[in-house]
Specification:
single chain; 2 helices; elongated; alpha+beta; three-stranded mixed β-sheet; 3 strands
Length: about 70
């Protein structure tokens, strides 16, 4: 068991704990324990149930949509 997994389990993580090139991915942790992991290990820490958009900042879509749903210039 890795140090990240041990720490996450100690904080109450359930399910698998994944460490990839971008982030630690956990289940069952609220923001404060995820921030603790993030700052302790120097990785982003994401909740598996709230995936981030690929190549975008977090879960927010980049850009604005016009009223008809098309991307605005």
């Amino acid at each position: 068991m890795t140090a990240v997994t041990q720490e996450a389990r100690g904080l109450g993580a359930t399910g698998s704990v994944e460490v990839n090139e971008r982030a630690i991915v956990v289940e069952g942790l609220d923001e404060p324990p995820r921030y603790y992991l993030q700052h302790g290990f120097g990785y982003q820490c994401h909740d598996r149930a709230k995936p981030h958009h690929y190549r975008q900042h977090g879960r927010a879509a980049i850009g604005w949509e016009a009223e008809d749903g098309t991307p605005a210039a």
